[in-house]
Amino acid sequence: MYAVVETGGKQYRVQEGDVIRVEKLDVQAGETVNLKVLALGKDGEVVVGEGAAFAKVSAKVVEHGKGDKVIVFKYKPKKDYRRKQGHRQPYTELAIESIQG
């Protein structure tokens, strides 16, 4: 059984036991989170929309962290204009505990 869930403006296909990284959530490590279900697949059938709304996907927050550094470098040739900036995107790591539906 699998589910397509939405969080942080992105969609993820998950199964029980998966560990995913999502946009940072305001939840403490060790707590459980329920995710919004968009689609549910089991036994070769896919249920989408209203039929999947009754399903529940619960995930446990494993940890919070920051991703790898991304360098943002802007320049204009021949104009002596250079700007260098780094960015590390914060994330929350979730372990999918159960899919009910």
UniProtKB/TrEMBL annotation:
Entry GO terms, CC: ribosome
rRNA-binding is among the record's keywords: yes
Keywords (A to Z) from UniProt: Ribonucleoprotein, Ribosomal protein, RNA-binding, rRNA-binding
Keyword Ribosomal protein: yes
Family membership: Belongs to the bacterial ribosomal protein bL21 family.
Known role: This protein binds to 23S rRNA in the presence of protein L20.
Quaternary state and interactors: Part of the 50S ribosomal subunit. Contacts protein L20.
Protein known as: Large ribosomal subunit protein bL21
Annotated organism of origin: Filifactor villosus
